[in-house]
Amino acid sequence: MAVLRRRAGSVVLAARAAVLLVVIERRLRRASFGEVRDDLARRARLVPERGCEADVVQVRRIGSLVNRASAAPFVRATCVPRALVTWYLLRRDGIDSTIRFGVRDGDGHREFHAWVERDGIVVNDGAAAVESYQSFGATSAPAGVDSPSSGSGPVSGSST
């Protein structure tokens, strides 16, 4: 029975991730990364973590489900929406994480990438996938968003 509940929870989480990926991909066409991140942070205020042991499993599960959802034919999300959705879903579960940005030289051009880390461990990519990128920035929730006096309104322009 517990296995069925866990599978049902995974299906719901994957469906939520797919919808969020589509909404955030569209939102990023009209708003800056910072605006979208700030809206998501207000929507999912970070609460105290529930325990270190359980969160390692949950972190990997969320990263994996978001990646699978992003590969769906109707989704096809790039790295920035994947990172934002992974970060948001982790926050909803009370798990703090950081979105990292990196750059590398490709064949005559620069390539950029975004990924999520938790305590220095890559969550939504393999470590090998990001090691060729030179990290040039990181972000988490803006200051004051997790304080009791900050608002928790819905994400502007979305219906999730």
Write the topology of this structure:
Layout: H1 2-30, H2 33-43, H3 52-70, H4 79-92, E1 98-105, E2 110-118, E3 121-122, H5 127-130, E4 134-139
Antiparallel strand pairs: 1-2, 1-4, 2-3
Summarize the structure.
This protein is 48% helix and 16% strand. With 160 residues, the chain is an alpha+beta fold.
Give a verbal description of the structure:
With 160 residues, the chain is of the alpha+beta class. It has one domain. 48% of the residues lie in helices and 16% in strands. Mean pLDDT is 81; it is low at 147-160.
Provide the low-confidence segments as ranges.
Answer: 147-160
State the order of secondary-structure elements, H for helix, E for strand: HHHHEEEHE
> Would you tell me the overall average pLDDT?
81
Instruction: Report strand %.
Output: 15-25%
User: In which range does the helix fraction lie?
Assistant: 40-55%
Number of domains: 1
Look at the helices and sheets and give the structural class: alpha+beta
The tally of strands reads 4
Q: Report the major sheet.
A: 4 strands, antiparallel
Rounded Rg: 16 Å
Largest sheet, spatial ordering of strands: 3-2-1-4
Shape: globular
**Treating each run of at least 4 consecutive H or I residues as one helix, how many helices?**
5
Give the terminus-to-terminus CA distance: 29 Å
